[in-house]
Amino acid sequence: MYRKLGNVKQIINAYEIEFSSGAEKGKNCILVNNGKLEVLFNKDNALDISWVKYAGNNISFLTKNGINTKNATFAEMFDGGFLYTCGMDNVSTCVEGRPLHGSLHYTKAENVSVSVLEDKVIVSGLIRESGLFLKNLVLERNYEVYSDKILIKDRVVNQGYTDTDYCLLYHVNYGYPFLDECLKFDVDVISSEGLTPHAQSRIDKQFTITPPVDGGNEEVFYNYLNSGKFALSNEKIGVKVEMLYDLKNFPITIQWKSMISGDYALGIEPSTTRFDKFEKTKIEKHTSKAYNIEINFGEL
Hints:
By secondary structure, this protein is mostly beta strands.
């Protein structure tokens, strides 16, 4: 293979970039390309994933705000992206006085490193949640980007001298053209509940993607699964995406569904807790816990 290449960057590369204009101005990111897979990691936002494109198709959901540097309300700042990690102090509005969906996403990654190997790109960094006389937690992020999958290998480390607690929710967001009326779900559900009475009234339509409607309400569902697998496929563009994770770490899979025009989105969210029965995870001093998610991409 290498005899056919002028430079290996023709087929696999990673570039550290800084946006120079627009709402994104000043944001520092890492753009990875490996075969059919393109991934943008946001160093200024917890090393979350701003977008994913596969085989030339956009997979992720980017809000009207886009990648931005605003200091405003959650609704005015929320960028969506492919992966928006919620925690470690809050998910949803569960903890009064903390940012909606937590502080993690607004924390810059430290010690970021990038390695381009023969078949994969490794992106890693540290995101710290700490305070004087408070906890000292570090989320060690480690991604492996292959030509057809992303491996998320995170580890929560308690570097403090007392036991503490945390919560995590991996807000994985899908958007057009991957998200469309033809999208099919493959998930083995034991039971589901709607977060609100409106969502509960539409529980039988949870896995049906409809055309956009002007106005309306978002819907959120709690799902208990038989296995940690949530697969989606779109025959129109010929792309499928499969998420694999351990239900011991993520007992709840939350589904966020917005069929609203201009806010057309689907979120599949492995979580350590529900919102209405909020529980944090305990972690002893000087210990750690791993959280792994495998996301596979393929053509139909």
